Amino acid sequence: MHQPPVPALSAADPEVARLVEAEARRQFEKIRLIASENYVSRAVLEATGTVLTNKYSEGYAGRRYYEGQQVVDPVETLAADRAKRLFAVDHANVQPYSGSPANLAVYLAFLEPGDTVMGMALPMGGHLTHGWNVSATGKWFRSAQYGVRRDTGRVDLDEVRDLALRERPKVIFCGGTAIPRTIDFPAFAAIAREVDAVLVADIAHIAGLVAGGAHPSPVGHAPVITTTTHKTLRGPRGAMILADAAHAKAVDKAVFPGLQGGPHNHTTAAIAVALGEASTEGFRTYAHDVVANARALAAALAHRGFDLVSGGTDNHLILVDLTGKGIGGKPAAKALDRAGIEANYNTVPYDPRKPFDPSGLRLGTAAITTRGLGPDQMPQLAAWIDAAVQAAGDEALLDRIAAEAAELMAAYPMPGWA
C-alpha cells in the first residue's frame, strides 16, 4: 500500500485514493527507465504533504507581502542555504514552480523581446525553452540553434563558436533533455565571454550527478544555473536558479514579481529535505552508481545491436536510434510499457520522422538505481528491452516479460510503497 498511508483521503474521496494506490503499485511493479523520473524518499513525500501548503508567501524571506511568515521564512532560507552549500554558489532562488518557469525567468532577467538567445535545437537534445520555435522563447526572442555532428552525435564546439560569433546572442544555454555526454562547461564559457553573452547552464537532468561529483560542475563557468529538483536530484517537482553575486538580484526580480506570485511552501520544504539528503556520502555513492548502471545498460544494448546516439553515455541517459531495428520509437515505447518497462519515445539527431512518431527511445537509470538495481541486472534489462521491441504486438510475450519484470522489482524496496 501507499506509504505514508492516506486514511483521510480514502474516507473523503475513495475514487482519488484508489487512483493514488494504483499509481503507487504501478511505480513499484514497473522498471522505470524514464530519464526525467525518480523516486523521492518518504521524508520528501511527507514534507510535500504538510500544512505548509496552506500558507501564501509572496516575496522573499524577510520581505513578504503577507503576515504570518515566522515559520515559512526559515523554511525557504534553509532550502536556499542548503542549495548554496551543496552546489558552492553565491545565491540560490528556490521559488520557481518548475524548470520551464525557471528558464523563462532567465529571459526576463537578461533579455528584451526580440533579443537573440542561443541554445541547442530540440531535435538534437535541447529543451523547448532554449529558444525552440514552438515555445514562447522561440516566438518572443530571436533564436539561434546549435546541434550535434552527424558522425559523432556530439556537440562540435567550433561550430558553436562560429554560430555565436555570427549571431551575437545575449544569452547562451548549454544543457538539454537528451544529451548522453558530458557537457563541456569551460568551452561554452569561453565562447560566451568572446561574444559578451550570459552563459546559462541548464542542469535539470544532471543536477544530482553534479551534486554527487559524478559530472563536472558548471559553477565558476556559468554565472547562472537553472535546474529542476527532481530527476537525478531526487527531490519534489520544483526548480531552482543558482547564480553568482553579480546576477543574483536580476534573477530574484525576474522570479518575483516578474513571473510568479507566492511560492509553493510545501514544495520548498521538500526541496530542503532533498538537498539535505543530497549532501550525504550515501548520495555521492548513488550518483556514481547511476552512471555505472547507465554505462552497463548502454553496453548491453549495444551488444544486442542497438544503435546508441554518440555511441554510449557519460551520465544517466541513453538515447537509442531504432532505425536499424525497423520500428519507430512510439510503438517501441508502447510495447515496452506493456512489458512492464517505462521509457519514452524521443527524437534523435537528424531524425527523418515526425516528433510525435520519432525514431528514438530515451532511457535513464536514476529511478532503478534508487531501487537498488546494479550493473549485474543491466544485461537482463537489455534482454527484455530487445525482446519487447522485436515482439511489439505479441501480447502474450509482452505479458510474460511484464510478469518477470514485476517479479524482479518485488525484491527491491520502493520509497512510498510497502
UniProtKB/TrEMBL annotation:
The record marks 230 as: Plays an important role in substrate specificity. The modification N6-(pyridoxal phosphate)lysine is found at residue 231. One of its GO terms (biological process) is tetrahydrofolate interconversion. It is found in: Cytoplasm. Its cofactor is pyridoxal 5'-phosphate. It holds the Pfam family SHMT. InterPro entries: PyrdxlP-dep_Trfase (IPR015424), PyrdxlP-dep_Trfase_major (IPR015421), PyrdxlP-dep_Trfase_small (IPR015422), Ser_HO-MeTrfase (IPR001085), Ser_HO-MeTrfase-like (IPR049943), SHMT-like_dom (IPR039429). GO terms for cellular component: cytosol. Pathway: One-carbon metabolism; tetrahydrofolate interconversion; Amino-acid biosynthesis; glycine biosynthesis; glycine from L-serine: step 1/1. Residues 9-385 form the Serine hydroxymethyltransferase-like domain. One of its GO terms (molecular function) is protein homodimerization activity. Its main location: cytoplasm. It catalyses: (6R)-5,10-methylene-5,6,7,8-tetrahydrofolate + glycine + H2O = (6S)-5,6,7,8-tetrahydrofolate + L-serine. Keywords: Amino-acid biosynthesis, Cytoplasm, Methyltransferase, One-carbon metabolism, Pyridoxal phosphate, Transferase. (6S)-5,6,7,8-tetrahydrofolate binds at residues 122, 126-128. Its EC number is 2.1.2.1. Homodimer. Belongs to the SHMT family. Catalyzes the reversible interconversion of serine and glycine with tetrahydrofolate (THF) serving as the one-carbon carrier. This reaction serves as the major source of one-carbon groups required for the biosynthesis of purines, thymidylate, methionine, and other important biomolecules. Also exhibits THF-independent aldolase activity toward beta-hydroxyamino acids, producing glycine and aldehydes, via a retro-aldol mechanism. Thus, is able to catalyze the cleavage of L-allo-threonine. HAMAP family: SHMT (MF_00051). This is Serine hydroxymethyltransferase. It comes from Saccharothrix australiensis.
